[in-house]
């Protein structure tokens, strides 16, 4: 219902905009505008609600654009974030992810396939610990641990990441200790303030983008909340590369 209302609001904004012209919209959009005009004429009681929702939507979009602009380098050019894929990417995909999120783990396999299919892309992981703020029995969480490994033991990161994503359920002290011992990354289990501040900033940006749950992607100028089918992911990446 929310998506439908937003879509209708957008269309209504086009209808009432004084700057829109035939050159700005397609024939299909023009047809939709005409149909919306009829609907509004027949149901004038919905105009006030549409106006309020449209105003909120436009304000929200402005805030999102501002957030992306202000944090562009932090998201796209920050060597502290782990990434996979090209060292000189034609397209960078931002992946808001959580090592305890089952949907993130499903999306991960799709992203791995995309990197293999399109070696010219890069996937940047923005780590979040929403599913588990602290690992029971350890003074850390999966996001802090992963960031520590990425910074201080880069050769081990790929395997640490794979093992953490491979566990279908939430991590506990035993699973993380096992991964750390297998990969020789026990030292990374000691959290530090820089990683804590970084993850906090990740959370703030995530919230400012209007997102509510992981996973979420930014592909080009599109923000995609939630896990999406492989075919849709492929299509979005193809469109951006073109």
What does this structure look like?
This protein has 242 residues and is an alpha+beta fold. 57% of the residues lie in helices and 10% in strands. It has ten helices and five strands. It has a five-stranded mixed sheet with strand order 1-3-2-4-5. Helix 1 (2-16) crosses helix 2 (27-42), helix 1 crosses helix 3 (47-70) and helix 7 runs antiparallel to helix 8. The radius of gyration is 21 Å and the shape is elongated. The two termini are 32 Å apart. The model is unreliable at 1-22 (pLDDT under 50).
pLDDT under 50 segments (min length 5)? 1-22
Q: Structural class given helices, strands, pairing?
A: alpha+beta
User: Per CATH, which architecture of the largest domain?
Assistant: 3-Layer(aba) Sandwich
Sheet with most strands: 5 strands, mixed
Domain module tally: 2
Cα distance, first to last residue? 32 Å
Elements, N to C (H/E): HHHHEEHEHHHHEEH
- Strands of the largest sheet, in order across it? 1-3-2-4-5
Q: What name does CATH use for the topology of the largest domain?
A: Glutaredoxin
Brief summary:
The protein is α+β, with helices and mostly antiparallel strands and 242 residues long. Helices cover 57% and strands 10% of the residues.
Q: What attributes characterize this protein structure?
A:
5-stranded mixed beta sheet, alpha+beta, 5 strands, 10 helices, 57% helix, Glutaredoxin, 2 domains
Task: Describe the protein's topology.
Blueprint: H1 2-16, H2 27-42, H3 47-70, H4 72-76, E1 83-85, E2 91-97, H5 102-117, E3 121-127, H6 142-152, H7 154-166, H8 173-183, H9 193-208, E4 216-219, E5 222-225, H10 230-241
Parallel strand pairs: 2-3
Antiparallel strand pairs: 1-3, 2-4, 4-5
Helix pairs in contact: 1-2, 1-3, 5-10, 6-7, 7-8
